[in-house]
Amino acid sequence: MTIDWSQERVLVYSPHPDDETLGCGGLMSKAKKAGAEVFVQFLTVGDTADQSPRGFSTAQERNAEIKAVADHFRWDDWHMALPGDKYHLRLDAVPRVDLAQVIERESPLSLERLRPTVVIAPHRTSYNQDHQAVAEAVHTALRPSNTALRHHPRLALAYEEAADQWRLDAVCPPNLVVELSEQEMRDKLRGMELYGSQTHEHPHTRSELTLRSLAVLRGMQAGVALGEGYHVLRCLA
């Protein structure tokens, strides 16, 4: 399967700031260099307890990080749908119909308004409740229907994160690998570095070595040096 990224309008769903870079930072770099449009729909952010010396990061800090990452990847636009502690790490308490409506038509980056050709979302097997809620809502929003009435992206993918892999019910390896150049790998690592409140030294699921190691593994499985793995949810040839 060969994708001409120069012809694509890519919409990435990121439950929190950094998920989009962890899951598809390399693809975003590749697509933008080819001439694609790339948009990121964040779902939520709030004050977060973490393992930093202070023990927390604020929503204000994380929004500043988004702006730096957006400039780095040269996103065409991004939007935060449901900011604040009412929603952060609590998206599983939001009715799926409400999340799906944000994705389908209410957001400035909704499927209806943006009409993307490629949609990329988290995988539903993530241990994180927000990731699961977003994955299921995107799945609902992309349900089969009459394309004359509702927009259908030509390609729908689910991205992976290293933290998802330890589940006993984790799915089989990805069935699509996007080959990455060394520069695209470096772009991904730099993007994650810009999320300073979320990066950690190895061993950690968000360390530089973890991201590179997963890229080496997925690349090896496809016979190339580096890659990002995805599960194909829909592909219209």
Structure, described:
The protein has about 240 residues and is of the alpha/beta class. The chain has a single domain (about 10-235), classed as LmbE-like (Rossmann fold). It has helices at about 20-35, 60-75, 95-105, 110-115, 130-140, 180-195, 210-220; strands spanning about 10-15, 35-40, 50, 55, 75-80, 120, 155-160, 175-180, 225-235. The strands form two sheets. A seven-stranded mixed sheet has the order 5-2-1-6-7-9-8, sandwiched between helices. Helix 1 (about 20-35) links the parallel strand 1 (about 10-15) and strand 2 (about 35-40). Helix 1 crosses helix 6.
> Treating each run of at least 4 consecutive H or I residues as one helix, how many helices?
7
Q: Any low-confidence stretches, pLDDT <50, length ≥5?
A: none
Helix content: 25-40%
Share of β-strand residues: 15-25%
Instruction: Provide the gyration radius in Å.
Output: 17 Å
Q: What's the architecture in CATH terms?
A: 3-Layer(aba) Sandwich
Oligomeric state, counting identical vs distinct chains: single chain
How would a crystallographer describe the biggest sheet?
Answer: 7 strands, mixed
How confident is the prediction overall: mean pLDDT? Answer: 94
Q: Tally the structural domains.
A: 1
Q: Can you tell me the CATH class? A: Alpha Beta
User: For this structure, what is the CATH homologous superfamily?
Assistant: LmbE-like
**What's the arrangement of strands in the largest beta sheet?**
5-2-1-6-7-9-8
Distance between the termini: 10 Å
CATH topology description = Rossmann fold
Tell me the series of helices and strands, N- to C-terminal. Answer: EHEEEHEHHEHEEHHE
Structural class: alpha/beta
GO molecular function, one term: hydrolase activity, acting on carbon-nitrogen (but not peptide) bonds, in linear amides
Protein name: LmbE family N-acetylglucosaminyl deacetylase
Keywords: Zinc
Organism: Nocardiopsis algeriensis
